[in-house]
Write a structure and sequence with these properties.
The chain has about 290 residues and is an alpha/beta fold. The chain has helices at about 10-25, 40-45, 60-65, 85-95, 120-130, 150-155, 175-185, 205-215, 225-235, 240-255, 265-270, 275-285, and strands at about 5, 30-35, 50-55, 70-75, 100-105, 135-140, 160, 195, 220-225.
Length: about 290
């Protein structure tokens, strides 16, 4: 039987990938998971997964952790600014261990995007391409769940702040993107391909505010701001300065289309329409 490995298996996307693999009738015993913490390892082991201890930053342990693995899903690390060396460690470990195929979760339109996260993804893609391993790049757009972070404040203030003007966004839920990862990891004919993955349904921030207003019965307005002012507002709300800079920059450059794609590649991969933002909001507001 083919042996799969999912990195970042305890993260939000990783857990959903494991669920999607289960729905595809892949046995837990055929799925290895890379974890850092002993408590997480115990829980996953109790579910029948082949638990491998390892850390993106610990190059020496990764090759051993990848022993016997044929197909590996590299979920991009969460430490912005540290991801390139971490990903290089994973790629080197995979090659040393004899992994044949690697699937990597990249960023929508990575090679041309002006979003601040793009360079680390481009560097990782280049390293994978140069490794000699078979690969597929899943260029994931923004998670739909990202837009929920400010929902309580939006409902309280009756205003949604941003710096995107009338830019279009086409996010997808983590569950839809996880399903695509499971399809590609276990499927055939995806080698050497790059998939731009976004939701089927797009919206502007004004549309988003209108949807919240419709669902809540409250008046909600979108307030557009210059990038610098939006960054200051985010830091004032308690976000760390680097994250505030990243988010305000992403808004400002979104007008050029970096968070929008209408190819419907994602829905074709998973075989059904993606989840609309209205459904995501309905679920969040029901809790």
């Amino acid at each position: 039987m083919t042996k799969y490995l999912v990195t970042g298996a305890t993260g939000q996307l990783g857990q959903l990938v494991l669920n999607a693999l289960s729905e595809k009738k892949i046995l837990n015993s055929d799925i290895a998971v890379l974890v850092r913490r002993a408590d997480a390892a115990a829980e996953l082991k109790s579910k029948g997964y082949d638990v491998r201890m390892g850390d993106y930053s610990d190059a020496d342990k990764l090759a051993a952790a990848f022993a016997g693995i044929e197909r590996l899903l590299l979920i991009s690390g969460s430490e912005v600014g540290e991801r390139l060396p971490q990903h290089f460690n994973v790629i080197a470990g995979a090659k040393e261990a004899g992994v044949k195929y690697i699937v990597y979760t990249s960023l929508l339109k990575a090679t041309s995007s002006k979003i601040g996260l793009a360079p680390e993804h481009v560097g990782t893609e280049e390293a994978i391409t140069g490794s000699g391993l078979d690969y597929t790049f899943l260029r994931n757009g923004w998670y739909a769940e990202n837009y929920l972070m400010a929902l309580p404040q939006i409902l309280e203030l009756g205003q949604h702040f941003g710096a995107a003007g009338d830019a279009k966004f086409a996010p997808a839920t983590r569950a839809d993107l996880a399903e695509a990862a499971a399809v590609v990891l276990t499927g055939e004919g995806h080698e050497g391909k790059t998939y731009e993955l976004a939701g089927d349904y797009s919206f502007t921030y004004a549309d988003y505010a209108d949807t919240i207003a419709e669902l809540s019965g409250k008046q909600i307005a979108y307030v557009d701001m210059p990038e610098a002012a939006f960054k200051d507002a985010l830091t004032g709300a308690g976000l760390p300065e680097p994250l505030a800079a990243l988010l305000s920059n992403a808004d400002a450059v979104a007008a050029e289309g970096w968070l929008f794609d209408d190819s419907k590649t994602l829905s074709r991969l998973i075989g059904h329409p993606t989840t609309p933002i209205k459904e995501v909001l309905q679920a969040a507001m029901a809790n």
